[in-house]
Design goal:
mainly alpha, 3 helices
Length: 106
Amino acid sequence: MKLFIGILGVALLIWGSLIYDAFSYGIVLQKFWTWFIVSSFNFQAITQPQSIGIVMIAYLLRGQRSKSTDNDDEDKSVRFWTSFLITVITPWALLGVGWIIHSFFF
């Protein structure tokens, strides 16, 4: 039973992470598109669902990235939390940098 709950927890964490990634990068893509593409090339703005769809297509095209398979449990834990924090922080850091560029140059 503990194994089942553990597997279910990991599956839910991965699924939640994918949903978070799609929505957060979708928001960033929509903002970047509006700030840089629409103003520079006079294209139409994209909606939130369209930007999420583009992000999901990019995930499919990017493929699976495999990392080294060390058997050190502590190393796996550190790698997991590092990857988790990068997943949470990266889209908002990109948005911040894009906002600065947009504010000063456009």
